[in-house]
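Let us work through a complete example step by step.
Step 1: write down the sequence.
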Amino acid sequence: MATGQLLLVDDEPGLRQAVQAYLEDEGFKVHVASNAREGWDLLQHISPDLIISDIMMPQVDGYQFLQQLREDLRFQAVPVVFLTARGMTADRIQGYNAGCDAYLSKPFDPDELVAIVSNLLDRRSAIVPTSGEGETPDLAEMARQIAKIEAFIEHRSGYVQTTPAPIHLDLTPREQSVLELVAEGLMNKEIAKRLETSVRNVEKYVSRLFSKTGTNSRTELVRYALEHGLTK
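Step 2: predict the structure and record it as tokens.
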């Protein structure tokens, strides 16, 4: 069964729900948004492997949304599939020129959409494998994580009061060192080099930090550490 995290942006509730249900039945995790602005807000909290977007939407259309994505380092490498009722050749050319990876005209066969999505995800995985010891890191994911951490650190002084942690966390010296480096915006490969250990070991330490702090991402981990005085 297929796997992957998707963002679906479409202002038609019926179609949005139908496509979400079909893709989830195929094994994908699907986040939905009713317009581009809502989709952009979601992207500040999730890191989808692929984005499916309608073109004809109010306020911000699909082309504008795609331009916004391609201008942001975090999302430049994320595949984008356009779903649209505009199926003329000129429309498709405009979509590809704008930077979309696939263009599917409504009405469409759901199986064709699944095939397109799976193909794009497989192709992206082949080009940029997920990070692991000895493998090339996922550059897009690294950029997203670094940008989120840097943005949070840059603005934290206005709304974060650093105070001692309300509960004691029993961190080992190595876990504390990893936490400090994550807070600096370093990714696993850089941390491994700094601490003279393997990427796999760093991944284990980061996983333990998630478990001990009750967080699910590096951004949440850094925020938790700063808010509770766990790092400088």
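Step 3: interpret the result. Residues 129-137, 159-165 have pLDDT under 50 and may be disordered.
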